[in-house]
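Quick one, T. Sequence first:
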Amino acid sequence: MHLRPEVRDAFVRLAQHSDVAGAVCTSVAAGLLRETTDVRRICTESGIALARAGEVEKFLIEGASAGLFQRASQLTWRPVSRSLHAQLAPMFTGACLYRAEVHADRDKVQVVVTKPPAPSRFTTELLAAAGEWGLVDTKETLPSIAESAQTRFCVMTPYVDEIGAPILVNLFARVPKGVRRVLISRADSGDLLPAGLRGVSGDLAALEVTVLSFRVERNDATGNETSHAKVVLADNHTAYVGSLNMNRWSLEYSLELGVCVTGSSAALIGNVVDAAESVSVPMRRPRSLD
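Structure tokens:
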């Protein structure tokens, strides 16, 4: 297929925006968008929901570097090269149709973030630089993973305190009946429940959560094998992997970042969790709790 270099370059640069680019380019090619206008009207004339205005604006910014638009002001845009829009419109539409109806990614990945509490200089900078489009909140992601489990729900977290423990209980409570529940953390000496889990030990027992400690003695070297991994896994189909600990610092103060993976990579993470579970040992309740 022969394409003029400017058409090929524009498509390659903008293909990631195909689902909105096809509609906008079609409107420009049809003469519906000729003059300087704002993103809201571009969405309306192109049949795109206003809730997706952020996606459209990203396309406009990228499109300006490809010769499709000029920025007239901070809020307005002017389409240029109507013929280029006309050539690209069916290409973007075809790419979008292929992705939606034919192609299937092996993995779906979402970026999961816990932002520091307001007022936050980090959040201000994030909004100014890139916005929040495409990011999902940790507090929404973890419960949805728990609710999706069908055979096993497992949380790996090395650190739990009195703030994180009730959140763990809430996650396990969301898991459907009949699903095996496993918590892998770090025990105190003697494989005793750490202080952070002692206050919810009864709740975990009522939910039939198997509470394990990942700390393996090494006979050939000093120290122990232990885990610093933070994982929330539903079966072998969905997994969160990130920096989040189940403690006050992670949940109330820190920027935490991770990914939620669905697909074949989640199965690989499941293999890691399988191995961790197999070498972990049950935690014991202190006698004072019995």
